[in-house]
Amino acid sequence: MSYSPPLSPRQQQLLARYQQQLPCSAHPYAQMAAELGCSEAEVLAELRQLDALGALSRVGAVLESRKLGASTLVALQVPPERLDAIAALVSSVAGVNHNYAREHRYNLWFVLTAVSQQELQQSLEQIRQQTQLPMLNLPMIRGYHLNLGFPL
Predict the structure, then answer these.
(1) In 9-134, where does DSSP find H-type helix?
(2) Residue pLDDT tens, the chain, 152 long
(3) Rounded-to-integer distance, Cα 75 and Cα 107, Å
(4) What distance in Å separates the CA atoms of residue 6 and residue 12, rounded to the nearest whole number?
(5) How is the subunit organization of this protein annotated in UniProt (predicted)?
(6) How far apart are CA 91 and CA 142, in angstroms?
(7) Among 80, 76, 62, 55, which Cα is nearest to 127's?
């Protein structure tokens, strides 16, 4: 079990208040600061510290990629000794995100997005050629909304 230092009240406030909806404005951090009664620099410093603590995976919009282009879930069957190298290679491909290892024979999973189905297929072929590994292409058939907010 790893040790996680306690979060400050402001860090808890940031996570609780903005984990599901960031302000949609030209200056979202300034708006967050105004709402929390602190400076924009303080908000940014707290977010950097949360990131350093591993309490934050990302800050940004979650977009419905099917409405913006094309996307698919991909799984690769990677020999364990090559997992780090293949993960780095896959992560270098434009449009790859959510790259993570799983305990399964198909042990490296990621989401691939592109502006068109043709570009998506080209990226899949690039990964296929570069890795020479068994691949599952698992395009979404029906979308579901998952509430990923967690009470603190």
Answers:
(1) 9-18, 28-36, 40-53, 65-68, 83-91, 117-131
(2) 455 678 888 998 998 888 888 898 999 999 999 999 999 999 999 999 998 888 887 787 766 666 778 899 999 999 999 999 999 999 999 999 878 999 999 999 999 999 999 999 999 999 999 999 999 999 988 877 666 677 76
(3) 7
(4) 9
(5) Probably forms a complex composed of NirD, NirL, NirG and NirH. All proteins are required for the total conversion of siroheme to didecarboxysiroheme.
(6) 26
(7) 76
Rounded Cα distance, 54 and 32, in Å = 21
Beta-bridge partners for 110: 74
Which pair of tokens denotes residue 70?
């094309």
Position 26, amino acid: A
**Using alpha carbons only, how large is the chain's radius of gyration in Å?**
19
- What are 111's strand-pairing partners? 73, 97
